[in-house]
Amino acid sequence: MKDVAEYRKSLAIRVSGFDDCGFSPQLMSVIAKQAYEKPTPIQCQALPIVLSGRDVIGMAKTGSGKTAAFVLPMIVHIMDERELAKEEGPIGVVCAPTRELAHQIYLETKKFAKSHGIRVSAVCGGMSKLDQFKELKAGCEIVIATPGRLIDMLKADRMFDLGFEPQIRSIVGQIRPDKQTLLFSATMPRKIEKLAREILSDPVRVTVGEVGTANEDITQVVQVIPSDAEKLPWLLEKLPGMIDEGDVLVFASKMATVDEIEAQLAQKGFKVAALHGDKDQASRMETLQKFKSGVYHVLVATDVRPAKEHNHISSWQLNGDIFRWTMKDVAEYRKSLAIRVSGFDDCGFSPQLMSVIAKQAYEKPTPIQCQALPIVLSGRDVIGMAKTGSGKTAAFVLPMIVHIMDERELAKEEGPIGVVCAPTRELAHQIYLETKKFAKSHGIRVSAVYGGMSKLDQFKELKAGCEIVIATPGRLIDMLKADRMFDLGFEPQIRSIVGQIRPDKQTLLFSATMPRKIEKLAREILSDPVRVTVGEVGTANEDITQV
C-alpha cells in the first residue's frame, strides 16, 4: 500500500495544528471547547490525506484520537455537498464492530456535527429498531452503526410494515423441501395470509371460533374520551377501583407513551412498571415475574402480553385491522382421516409424553388441540386459528416431538429437525418454556434463538446440535449467517453494506489492530488506500501497565 510519508510529500501538506486544516470557525470553536490543544500523531498524519479524498487505513492505539481523524473530514465533505432534502441521506456511514464502540463514536460525532446542524443517527443494538428505522427514513447526514443492525435497517426498508415476511421467506428457503409447515395464530392479516398460501403446501385450515371476532371470555367496554389530554385524568380516577378487582394492564402503541404513563402513575403512588422493546430481556422477564407475583399492580406495555388472567385491560392507543379468509375446511379433512380426538390417549403419545401431559394438569385436549392434533400428526401442513390462551402451542409441539422421535438420533452438531418462529421475543420465550416441558421427557434438546441473550452463546448452542429451535426470525437469520462468518466477525456484513453504497465513495478504516482477514478485506474494498500507522502494530499500549 502507498506509504503515508510518500503521499504527504506529494501533497505538500503538513499539519501541526488544527488551523492548518481549513476547518470552519464553527468547527474550530467546538475543537477548542473539547480542550484539544493540538492534533495527535494519528490526526497529524491522517487529516490532510482524508481531506484530500483518498481512502485511508489508519492504525493507532486505543485513545489516540482516531475518531476525530475521520469525523472532522467527514463533516467538511458533508458541508461541501448540497443540503439534503427530507428523507435523504446518509452521506457518511461509520461502522463499528460493537454497539459500545458505535455508541462512543456516535457521542463524539454529535459533538462536532452539532456545530453545522448535521444530523447523526445511531443504528446499533440495545435500542428500538422501529425508532431507528423511522429516524433513518426521516433523513440524516451521518449514520453510526454496527453492521448487523444496519443491514436490518436496509432490509427493513423493503419489509411489510416492519413485519417479518422476508425473514420467514429467507428461513423457509433454507429448509429441505419435504418439510411440514404449521402456522398457528389468533389473527390472520392479509399479508400473512398471502405468505401462508405461498409457503404452505395445500394446508388444512383449523379454526376454533370465528376469526376476527372478539374473545367471548373478555368483556370489552369502549370508553370514548374526547381528547388525549383527558385520558390520564380518566385513568387516574378509574384505576383504584380496577386494582381492587385485580391487576391492570395498560397498552400504548409507542414506547415513549408507555414511559410517560408509567412515570405519571408512579408519581401518584401506584405500584407500576413499564414493558417495551427498549428494555433488555432480563429486565423484561423480571418485570413480568414481579407483575405476576403481585409486586406491581399495574403494567404499562406496548404489545407484550404476559401469560396471566387480568381483570382490567386499558388500551391507550387503538390500532390494527381484522381480516377474515378461507382455505380447506378442517371438517372435510378430518372426515377423510376418519380420526377423532376426544382425549390425549387417542393420539398415540408415548408413556413419557402422557406422563408430562398429566403433570401439566391437562385434563383433556382443548378445541384447537382436538381438531389440529390428528392432522398435524398425519404430516399435513396446517393453519390453526384460535384465541390467545387456547392451547395452540401444545397443538404443534406435541406432534413435533412425535415426529422427532420417529427420526434417527442426531449426531453431534446436527439438527435442528423442528423450527418454531414467533414474531416477538416474549412469545418465543413463552413457547420455549412450554416446549422444554414436553421435550425433556425424551431427552430432546431445545435451543432458544431470540434477542436479549448473547448471540455468541446461542450460536455455540446451535453448532453443538439440537432437535428443536424456538426463534424470532431476525435472530435466526443472524445465526444462519453467522455460520458463514469469520470467527463470528463482521466481514460479510461489511461487504453487504459496501455493496449498497455508490462506487465513488471514500472508505476509511481506522483500528488499533489489523487481523489478517480484515487486512485482506481492506485490500479488496478500499481503493488504493494510504496506510497511516502510529506506533508499532501489535505491540502493547505503553500507557497500560500489564502485570
From TrEMBL:
Residues 231-383 form the Helicase C-terminal domain. This is RNA helicase. A motif (Q motif) lies at residues 16-44, 342-370. It is an enzyme of class 3 (hydrolase). It comes from the Eukaryota. Keywords: ATP-binding, Helicase, Hydrolase, Nucleotide-binding, RNA-binding. The lineage of its organism: Eukaryota, Viridiplantae, Streptophyta, Embryophyta, Tracheophyta. Residues 47-206, 373-532 form the Helicase ATP-binding domain. Its EC number is 3.6.4.13. SUPFAM superfamilies: P-loop containing nucleoside triphosphate hydrolases. The keyword Cytoplasm does not apply. Residues 16-44, 342-370 form the DEAD-box RNA helicase Q domain.
